[in-house]
Queue: 3 jobs
Job 1
Amino acid sequence: MEITAEERINLQKKLNNKEKLNNDEIEKLINLLDQTKLGLKLFYSQKEETIKGKNIKNYYYFFEEINNLEIKNANKKSNLLIEGDNYFALKHLIKINQKVDIIYIDPPYNTKNKDFIYNDIIISKDDDFKHSKWLSFMKRRLKLAQKLLSDNGVIFVSIDDNEQAYLKVLMDEIFGEENFVSNIFVESNPSGRSDSKDIANSGDYLLIYAKNKLINEFNKIIFDPKESDLKGYSIQKVGSNSRREDRPNLYYPIYINYETQKILLDNFEKSIKIFPKLSNNEDGRWIYSKETLQSMIEKNLIEIVKNTKNKYIIKWLDKEKKEGLDLKLKSSWHTNGIYSLSNSVAKIQLLSIINSKEAESMTPKNIDLLKLIIKFSSSNKNSIILDFFAGSGTTGHAVMQLNKEDNGNRQFILIEKENNIAKDICYERLYRIINGKGTKGKQDFKWLKKNKPYLKENLKYIKIKLEDKINGNYEEIESSKDLYKSSFNISNININEIS
Ligand SMILES: C[S@@+](CC[C@H](N)C(=O)[O-])C[C@H]1O[C@@H](n2cnc3c(N)ncnc32)[C@H](O)[C@@H]1O
């Protein structure tokens, strides 16, 4: 028998007042003691969630495809934008046996700024059950998300200090501690928050879990290569111990033909003989023995390159580094020459597409963060990426950008509850970057100055409608079954009932 946070507080009050407990309460108390002796236990809020005062389980939900919002540019499967509560959308995706490879979510952080609505009420910082309510909300959805992940799928959740610790325990419970991959610190606000009292908070977290860590393989990423990693190093020793007399056996000739770029340790036709020379014209020495250099030549790791002074130098290339083979991502991510993780840049990215008051009030994530997540998770260019707290649609934007960069066919499914955000911001953003103009014909937004529209992408807009099971209009629900089926042509559909 599970005990809710509210029941736990009531029990506590009764015990403090030395009130008599009834049989049900005694059983709950025994259960509670059993559970807590196992270790840390999260307490969830009321078991049931409500919408307009009614239990969410008392709703029929059905899907209406908004045909006049469909974008159809290419002969390929469509991306989806679903407007409605993600609880119903996730349930439906499970019902049609949809699987997704990558899930990214950026849920309400449950901050002091009243960003989280539960059971139709804005949760305030003084609510005694604020953590339990948030956990109940997330647990219900994360359990569905876990079912949706493909066998080698992976989920990323952005979160900050308000709920990070609680979320970690919840995710351990749902995905299994053994599938925990990392808790990344993402430096999204490098200058630090000015309203932090003691330590200026400069970022948030990204919790990563695999569906099954044993079979999951992540990609190595060139996250922040140093120029020298890519350009290679001179094979001549510099600095201390660099003279011939320091290591006489590392002074030997190399034969080179600059035109054909051929290098050998023995003389060959049209080659010239090179010895290591220091800048003061003294004899120098190489870094490698003849044997090592020979094997590097055979592995194609030695190159002749021109330096900035237009002089030839012989370099060894760390090919593994060049190809990113040994570059493991570290657990703290910062903006660098390749990826920007900054939230303020993310806002500029959004405003360059939609410059409205509504867009100004959003807290979008950076497109590069999503690109990094997708590249790290899967090299499958056909993967399906789900974001069920879509907001302004950054995840969809990043998927299309990556498809453009590597000719991929990835698809995205976005879910956003609020109509004004789903339609006016998320849909409008995706429409503009796909078509190069706004839904009302606007063509002078800044993004177009530096980018070309994606064109070769499709999008379907689906609205979730709810009917009260008790007072519902069954005829409408029945007739919606076909629509409901046709909404998702991204997988085989197998539904027997709506509920
Ligand atoms: C922090 S924002 C996500 C921002 C997004 N990552 C971006 O880059 O724009 C969270 C979004 O989740 C939406 N949301 C909250 N509860 C939801 C629910 N139950 N179902 C679907 N969307 C929900 C909110 O309306 C809000 O737009």
Note: DSSP finds 15 helices and 20 strands in the chain.
Job 2
Amino acid sequence: MPRPSSPRRSRLVSPRFLLLAVAVAGLAVPLAAQTRADKNASAKHAADKNASGEIVNVYSYRQPFLVEPLFEKFTQTTGIGVRVIFAKKGLVERVKTEGENSPADVLLTIDISRLIHAAETVAQPVPSPVLEKFIPATARSSDDLWFALTYRARVAYVSRARVRQDTLSYGALAGPEFKGRICMRSGQHPYNNALFASQLAHLGEPAFRTWLRGVKNNLSEKPSGNDRAQVRRIYAGSCDVAIGNTYYMGKMQTNSQKPEQKDWARAARIIFPDAQGRGTHVNVSGMVMAKHAPNRDNALKLMEFLVSEEAQRLYAEVNFEYPVRAGVAPSARVAKWGTLRADTLPLETIAAFRKRASEIVDEIGFNN
Ligand SMILES: [Fe+2]
């Protein structure tokens, strides 16, 4: 049975309207707010036609442009309105503070560490044959608490001019041929932490230490900057192999606001490490259902909608990611970079090695 919304919540929103994008105080910039307001207008129109009075509340760490098209489709399909709160941080803590009165139904986030944090702090299990069928077991929790929606592969960006090979393994990054030629962001950043955790899980601690020391010795400079900054270093000639997430290639290739990034992207190509072996390390974006979700049935409908073929294609395409659902192809642009064969080590297993990987990064002074 659906649980009714509490009176406090139902006062917030007229059930006739779909209210997309409630900006969190202090985080919304005026331009973004304006964009969201514009989108509200069309979304509201769609909701009027499908007015069912049903809603689902989403707390989203993912940006409006990524999820609003999905929610509009969901409302068109089901008649269920979607209210969203966007923020860059603090949403899990907010749900926790709100406790049993929290209006949150579904949380959307990125990165396995943040997904697990949400799962452990504010989620409820969602036993769903649909989610089980379409999300690979390696990309959801064994206790039904979190579910991945998209993959982002952590790959090698290599110089078109200075690197000839077409294949590469993560192991080779520690080899003598890459002395002084590798660049990457901090070893403690969650993206590298998950990559290192997967290496630790595969290699065991002694071999992992040796590998990580080898990579450190091959760095062209101290880890700093974000993933895109490493590709800029390839462009500038200061390193030949950078570690980065795949979607940044798409973001750089299409960046009309900072067209210099198109040049960075042109200087590099992607190699999927270990594509011929155990598979390339992937991280995810994903979702959990809030423990006290007041609109549980609608939340389940939304979560199951997000693994539909249409939603998977849309969601992956808009951020140059990969659908988790088998049989749904990535966008044409993403497909051009090569074929992703994801490592089959469960993300849950990788997550269990995060803490130790982080300690070893400090022990060997990777960032120093
Ligand atoms: Fe990112």
Note: The mean pLDDT is 89.
Job 3
Amino acid sequence: MKLFKKATCFNISKSLPARLTACTLAAVCIAACTLAALKLSASRVGGAANAAYYAPLILVDAGHGGEDGGASGPGGLLEKELNLDIALRLRDALRLMGFRVRMTRETDVSLHTGEGKRKQSDLQTRTEAINAADVDLCVSVHQNSYAGKGVARGAQVFCAPNGERSRAFAESVRGCLAELRDENARGVKTANSSVYILYHAENPAILVECGFLSDPLDALLLSNPESRAEIAFAIAKGVAECFRADD
Ligand SMILES: [Zn+2]
């Protein structure tokens, strides 16, 4: 069944104020469509004993945190802070659209438990959150960095190697990010064992590297709250479109 109707009012290839207006209008439009669709879903689930409101549960994972700052960029930009900012904006956009949202973190903390190998423990905590039985999809938010020669900029979406839904989810988000910038159009990559949380994901999951902190243009964009809001909304739109395409 199609959970979402097409939101034809979305057009972000305009000047910044126009884009923000378009984003706001699109959010309202998609929220209205989503809420209508979810009412259908509730009636489809139906039955006196099971008439509870149902909406897909999206896990939003803000990468790194606490003692683990992740990548860094000019002017003191820290990946963990950008990840959290975009993740919180993504949370709000998804809730506006009618999704249920769970966060792995909403403050500047590491998710390790106990002592020992803290990074491994942190990743294990996130993986367990992804694999919770009630999670429908997971989006992990990160920033990239590149130390080699040449230019590397724009977003990169990775999908978990666990089936078609992760791939479709990643393609949907990639498409929405590519509407923001041509540099975001690079192809989806299937995660290998170096991307621990995706490699061990059982539920549909993607990881979005929103840009390269090593690139001056990307760093400038990521330091702008309005650009981060656009990225978060593009990811949310990609999530909504993925459900709309679901049968
Ligand atoms: Zn990262």
Note: The chain has one domain: 56-244.
